[in-house]
């Protein structure tokens, strides 16, 4: 999720100055010796966390246990290497001592864990190579647990061998099933027309038996793990220290992170660079490459199958053999996934419901125009409703004349007023946030004046950010659409609209729940010149402030609960701030002084009418059924290792997905169209006209949008 992009002002300057002074005091030495870089990094980070974090941790046994648990989760996320006895040994020696280590600037726990891990990796490498020399029997009744949280560290080497046998059998089974699917598709595909009569040898490939496929699949699995273990055995000391430093930072909250110099460079490119590739923001979490966000206007955004929350396990370039990215360093995985415009990448992803899907994406540059606010009109039973899609809260801080999301939404509202719309739907679904100031200014388009959000640091009274413009750009019926991926600035705007009773918030059970502000500090700037010889140290992203609604409640952890909750295909997902490791909790402060909108919507009446429509809707009923099935599938994490049973389950899952997609396509279309003024401005530019048409085409079967239109009409 994007964190609010607020310019570093006086507050940040003060805390950075404190950090520099504290660091200098900490590292002034009475002798001429230069301390080890590791010790300086750990203590500098600790000084920053203690001095500037919104909610500094006490360095005690509780802190120590958090670091212990999270580090083990990161270095052996699937519980496939360390034995139960290894974990017990580490726990006895280090679980309550890590706080003392970091005070000293040392990392004995990390060192000993890695010594053990290196040995276990070598042991397991010999193990999997031996297991893969023998064929697997896919006719026996046995299962494999795919969810690491439900698994345990192996009791001994014998148990570890059995766990790896099942794991490798599962990996081989998946590939055999994929080969069977590919062979069936080739059989069904008609031969291309040709003037030359093909010879019998070239009319079709020979049909392979499952046994022949099993041999090939085991070879692929062997290469897959040889490549993965080659990376594991090449982890250097700097990589390990960076991971350990980040674990310490992450125990404060999920958005506090350490960036090694290389990682900070990658972060800067992601924030400011020209996106060329698939257009997905990725994060490394517990040894897995997870999609955290889809960039509006990107190849992934337009293709539509890759979603936030997906875990990428394998990457293939075009038709080449997929390569594992499990356990891979994030920067290396990103290098494999991104590529030149027009090239194909195939991603094997694990969906949150535990299903697996291969997604083909043609790489492209982000179409910047698709990241900006866009509007359309919807004609429904003689009523014209305005629709605005806002993918992100953008602003150009380096150019006062640059584009601003608040200014763009203002322009779209003006165009909709000229179209004589009777109401407006503002769509913040999948909007991960961005510029806080734009959220404040955007709220001001719908209210006369007053507070919009409160921002509080660790000490002192909160600052209240106000809309100071008494003008109301739009005063008619308003619905704001949100979902689980609406975060940060989206939550601020939705909360303000809800607190002022200015409109109706509709969508999933709650928004994401990210109500914190982060700043990035360069550790090299904070440390005195005497350490120049051992720089660079990287950067620290710190949570320094928290957002609060004008009613006093935080948007952190809980998010915003809509006035009208709709069935949502993502409702089965355990996504959001509350599902992350060590999130800051919800709390409240004194409310700001504000006055509710005089023509507040009759929310209870609108909710009752909406619930009646939803209950009678076949499309929403299907969404509910789908969410329930996915919840069951997500919880049922054991898979059969019997080929026929596994393939039958895959076919059932595909049939359910196809049924849902068919029902969505069968839904009555919404009469949505680009603004006539926009089409006139585009003239004969067919590329831009097609882009405008694509924008509305993707919405014409959106049942949530249809219900939002009904709620707007109920307010007339």
UniProtKB/TrEMBL annotation:
Composition-biased stretches, type Low complexity, lie in: 192-210
Write down the Gene3D superfamilies for this protein, in alphabetical order: 2-enoyl-CoA Hydratase, Chain A, domain 1 (3.90.226.10), 2.30.42.10
Question: Is Transmembrane among the key words of this record?
Answer: yes
Query: Which segments carry the region annotation Disordered?
Result: 184-210
Recorded GO terms, molecular function? serine-type endopeptidase activity
The residues that cross the membrane are 6-27
Q: Keywords of this protein's UniProt record, alphabetized?
A: Hydrolase, Membrane, Protease, Serine protease, Transmembrane, Transmembrane helix
Name the EC number(s): 3.4.21.102
Q: Which CDD domains does the UniProt entry name for this protein?
A: cpPDZ_CPP-like, Peptidase_S41_CPP
Q: Which residue intervals define the domain PDZ in the entry? A: 264-338
Family statement drawn from the similarity comment of this UniProt entry: Belongs to the peptidase S41A family.
Q: Which protein, by its recorded name, is this?
A: Carboxy terminal-processing peptidase
Question: Which species is listed as the source?
Answer: Hymenobacter volaticus
């Amino acid at each position: 999720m994007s964190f609010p992009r607020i310019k570093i002002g006086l507050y940040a300057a003060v805390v950075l100055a404190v950090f520099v002074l504290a660091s200098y005091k900490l590292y002034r030495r009475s002798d001429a010796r230069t301390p080890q870089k590791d010790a300086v990094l750990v203590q500098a980070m600790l000084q920053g966390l203690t001095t500037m974090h919104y909610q500094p941790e006490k360095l005690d046994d509780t802190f120590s246990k958090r670091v212990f648990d999270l580090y083990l989760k990161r270095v052996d996320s699937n519980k496939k290497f360390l034995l139960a006895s290894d974990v017990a040994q580490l726990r006895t020696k280090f679980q309550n001592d890590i706080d003392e280590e970091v005070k000293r600037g040392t990392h004995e726990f990390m060192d000993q864990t890695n010594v053990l891990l290196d040995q276990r990796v070598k042991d397991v490498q010999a193990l999997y190579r031996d297991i893969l020399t023998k064929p697997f029997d896919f006719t026996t009744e046995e299962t494999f647990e795919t969810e690491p949280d439900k698994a345990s560290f192996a009791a001994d080497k014998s148990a570890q061998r059995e766990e790896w046998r099942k794991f490798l059998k599962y990996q081989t089974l998946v590939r055999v099933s994929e080969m069977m699917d590919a062979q069936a598709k080739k059989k069904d595909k008609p031969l291309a027309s040709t003037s030359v009569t093909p010879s019998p040898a070239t009319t079709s490939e020979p049909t392979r038996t499952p046994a022949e496929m099993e041999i090939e699949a085991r070879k692929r699995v062997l290469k897959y793990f040889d490549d993965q273990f080659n990376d594991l055995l090449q982890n250097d000391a700097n990589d390990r220290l960076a991971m350990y430093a980040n674990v310490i930072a992450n125990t404060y909250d999920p958005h506090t992170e350490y960036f090694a110099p290389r990682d900070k460079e990658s972060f800067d490119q992601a924030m400011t660079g020209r996106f060329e590739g698939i257009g997905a923001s990725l994060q490394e979490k517990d040894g897995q490459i997870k999609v955290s966000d889809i960039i509006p206007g990107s190849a992934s955004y337009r293709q539509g199958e890759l979603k936030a929350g997906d875990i990428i396990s394998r990457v293939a370039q075009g038709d080449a053999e997929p390569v594992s990215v499990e356990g891979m360093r994030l920067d290396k995985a990103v290098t494999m996934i991104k590529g030149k415009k027009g090239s194909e990448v195939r991603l094997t992803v694990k969906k949150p419901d535990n299903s697996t899907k291969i997604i083909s994406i043609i790489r492209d540059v982000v179409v910047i125009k698709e990241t900006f606010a866009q509007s359309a009109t919807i004609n429904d039973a003689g009523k014209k409703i305005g629709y605005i899609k806002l993918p992100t809260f953008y602003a150009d801080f380096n150019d006062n004349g640059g584009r601003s999301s608040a200014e763009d939404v203002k322009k779209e509202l003006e165009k909709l007023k000229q179209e004589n719309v009777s109401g407006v739907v503002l769509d913040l679904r999948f909007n991960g946030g961005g510029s806080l100031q734009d959220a404040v200014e955007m709220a001001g388009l719908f209210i006369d004046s007053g507070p919009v959000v409160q921002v509080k640091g660790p000490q002192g009274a909160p600052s209240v950010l106000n809309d100071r413009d008494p003008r109301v750009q739009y005063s008619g019926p308003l619905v704001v659409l949100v979902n689980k991926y609406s975060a940060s600035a989206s939550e601020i705007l939705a909360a303000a609209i809800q607190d002022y009773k200015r409109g109706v918030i509709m969508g999933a059970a709650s928004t994401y729940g990210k109500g914190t502000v982060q700043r990035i500090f360069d550790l090299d700037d904070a440390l005195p010149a005497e350490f120049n010889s051992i720089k660079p140290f990287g950067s620290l992203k710190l949570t320094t402030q928290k957002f609060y609604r004008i009613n006093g409640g935080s948007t952190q952890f809980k998010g915003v609960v809509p006035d009208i909750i709709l069935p949502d295909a993502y409702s089965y997902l355990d996504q959001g701030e509350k599902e992350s490791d060590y999130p800051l909790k919800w709390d409240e402060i004194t409310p700001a002084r504000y006055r509710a909108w005089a023509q507040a919507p009759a929310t209870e009446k609108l909710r009752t009418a909406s619930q009646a429509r939803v209950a009678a809707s076949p499309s929403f009923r299907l969404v509910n059924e789908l969410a329930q099935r996915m919840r069951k599938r997500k919880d049922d994490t054991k898979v059969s290792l019997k080929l026929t049973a596994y393939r039958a389950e895959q076919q059932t899952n595909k049939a359910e997905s196809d049924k849902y997609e068919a029902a969505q396509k069968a839904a009555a279309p919404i009469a949505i169209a680009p603004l006539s003024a926009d089409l006139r401005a585009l003239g004969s530019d067919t590329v831009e006209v097609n882009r405008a048409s694509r924008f509305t085409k993707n919405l014409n079967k959106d049942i949530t949008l249809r219900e939002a239109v009904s709620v707007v009409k109920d307010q007339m």
